[in-house]
Design goal:
This protein is α+β, with helices and mostly antiparallel strands and 136 residues long. The chain is 24% helix and 32% strand. A seven-stranded antiparallel β-sheet has the order 4-3-2-1-7-6-5.
């Protein structure tokens, strides 16, 4: 039994080190201690990973991962945090805050994450749709 088995279960076989949909530096607020830390983020196949370093390899260990399908909204949060280039990502249970390096980076991340939310939440709900009209 390798120790990597349990931690990699969150990754669902996503090769986060290879050709991400989006990658870049963001400053993220800590979950428990509310300090701001700069992390390298990778969006791939419906998962948002973060790392301490921008050099991501097969052996890299993500510092965290958010399954995008659990997210409800992604939107600007400058007014909430009173910080430039800030945005928030919300699930049913929590809201996470991020700060990009520029307005363009912020918009690009919001668009990429938003697109991923739509793609991955659609695949979840399509299988749950029951259309009584189609049953004669």
């Amino acid at each position: 039994m390798g120790g990597t088995q349990t931690s990699s279960s969150d990754y669902d076989g996503v090769e986060f080190w290879s050709v991400p949909e989006r990658g870049g530096w963001l400053t993220k607020q800590g979950e428990y201690i509310k300090t701001w830390r700069r992390r390298w983020f990778v969006l791939k196949q419906g998962k948002l990973f973060w790392f301490k370093e921008s050099t991501v390899t097969r052996g890299s260990k993500p510092r965290g991962v958010i399954p995008v399908a659990t997210c409800l909204t992604v939107k600007g949060a400058e007014d909430v945090l009173n910080k430039q280039f800030a945005f928030e990502l919300s699930t049913r249970s929590e809201t996470m805050y991020f700060i990009a390096d520029s307005e363009k980076e912020k918009e690009d991340w919001i668009n990429s994450i938003g697109r991923s939310i739509v793609q991955h939440s659609r695949s979840v709900t399509d299988s749950e749709i029951v259309d009584y009209d189609s049953k004669q």
